[in-house]
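Entry for the shared binder. Reason: the reviewer on the internal report wants the predicted structure included alongside the sequence.
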Amino acid sequence: MVVLKRSQSKARVAVAGLGAIGAAVVRELDRGVEGLVLAAVSAHSIEKHRVLLDALKTRPEVLPIEKLAEAADIVVECAPSRLVRSIVAPVVTSGKTAIVLSVGALLENEDLVDLAKKNGGHIVVPTGALIGLDAVTAAAEGTIHSVRMVTRKPLQGLAGAPHLVENNLSIEGLTEPLRIFEGTAREAAKGFPANLNVAVALSLAGIGPDRTRVEIWADPTVTRNTHRIEVDSDSARFSMSIENIPSENPRTGRITALSVIACLRKQRASLRIGT
């Protein structure tokens, strides 16, 4: 009898963007993740990341973003939201997997999902800076009545957000919490594209971007990005909260990069935990 073993070949991973998240993912892949190998990276100014690349045990190819799909089986998007289409479209058209962090951009490029379906590709959204997306996804198999998220952020993490600029809202010198937004997840993604990918991820796991309600507070009393989620469904009523320690980029929590790494480990892991 001939016993066929599962292929031992490693999946090639490329990382688009070498900021706080991308750099952390690259370092961990270089250290070693079961079944994966770092194949390529891309960045707007690769010279800025020379120290990072020189410190790696195995140097990946440096490619323009549109070439990453040719060099890898999985492409991790850690780039500005305006680049999501140019990164993801070639990947899913090739029938490969794109791990997307700039989830808000998917609302403006919804056809990417159809493109993935047509070509056998996959778009994966990691849990990121949230908590309990497994529970929301499970509840969505039944009926979810409402989902509400309240976000509180230190002032520096909100500076320059389009919603503040367009509405002439100043949070400089704020001494007490101020609610600066209330609306849908879709509206939050437009007004705070660098801050509220979590709201879009929550909405896609549950009842969609137009029914998911979001409040955003500029809060000088907090030092961590804080999210509280309340879900009411026919299977469970639950609430969750998380306080994320910011990375060197104040708009991004440290746990976001760890979530991407955990997501990558699941791609080839012998044991997978969670939905």
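Summary line for the report: The mean pLDDT is 93.
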